[in-house]
Amino acid sequence: MPEAIVVGGAFIMPPLPTKEDKEKMAALEKARAERVDRLLKRICKATPLGKQIVESAEKRGISIGIDGDKGNAWGSYSPSMKYVSLNEKASDSQLLSTIVHELRHSEQKPEHDFNNTVFASIAEVRAMEADAMAHECAAVFQMRHAEPVTYELFVNRHGGIMKAFEESFKKDKDMTKAKAEAFKAWYDHAEYVELYDRSVVEFSAMGKMTSGAYKDDMPSSKLAEKVDYVEQSFFDSPRAATVSEETARETEKVERGHVRNMFKFFGKSKIPTSADHFWVRDGKGNVSEPKRPRAAQNAVRSRLVEAKLGKGR
Question: What CATH number did the domain enclosing 66 receive?
Answer without folding.
Answer: 3.30.2010
